[in-house]
Design goal:
The chain contains 8 helices and no strands. The protein is an all-alpha fold. It has a single domain, classed as Orthogonal Bundle (Arp2/3 complex 21 kDa subunit ARPC3). Helix 2 crosses helix 5 (about 80-100), helix 3 runs antiparallel to helix 5 and helix 6 packs antiparallel against helix 7 (about 145-150). The protein is elongated. The N and C termini lie close together (about 10 Å).
Length: about 180
């Protein structure tokens, strides 16, 4: 949608700023931060393209870790690249649908739902059923069910909420973006 690379870079920088601000709220609820980050990822894919959205999808897990200092991610650092891959899978689904469907609203809905499912499935299999059970420190074992839910069901819910937010925000922004 946005054709100028400078405008794409500025847009992604603004979306990153929104993500960073939301990550300070993560200790309140992942249901605040998660949807906001997923919304920004989808908006980046729609407005700026897959490459810029992929950049955002790899930076946000690092900033989240640096801001929140998540003890599980400290104990199992491989979670961070897995989150990046989960984000990239969602972005790729949105971007692929964008190539096939000429309607941005349909693209957000179909790509967002498909991407949310793929992201959640990947993170469930790799993080919840792979990394966490095999690498969790013994002292964190009592919280294993919470951690597994966080990287499975919660990821699906927050990505789907982010899809709804992206659709709402896109419809508010598209007239402004079309003038760029």
């Amino acid at each position: 949608m946005i054709k100028n690379n400078t405008q794409k870079l500025v847009t992604v920088a603004m979306l990153l700023a929104i993500c960073i601000v939301s990550q300070f709220l993560k200790n309140l609820s992942v249901y605040i931060t998660g949807p906001i980050v997923n919304t920004c990822l989808i908006i980046a894919a729609i407005c700026c393209g897959q490459i810029y959205a992929l950049i955002l999808s790899t930076v946000t897990p690092v900033t989240a870790f640096l801001i929140t200092g998540n003890p599980l991610m400290s104990a199992i650092p491989l979670i961070i690249p897995c989150i990046m891959i989960g984000n990239a899978l969602m972005i790729s689904a949105v971007s692929l649908v964008k190539l096939k469907i000429n309607s941005y609203n349909k693209c957000i809905v179909i790509g967002g739902i498909t991407g949310s499912l793929i992201k959640a499935l990947f993170m469930t299999l790799v993080i919840s059923y792979g990394l966490i059970p095999s690498m969790i420190p013994e002292k964190m074992m009592p919280k294993i069910a919470v951690f597994q839910t966080t990287f499975s069901v919660t990821q699906l819910i927050t990505a789907l909420i982010g899809t709804v937010y992206a659709l709402i925000i896109w419809n508010a922004l598209k007239k402004v973006i079309e003038k760029l």
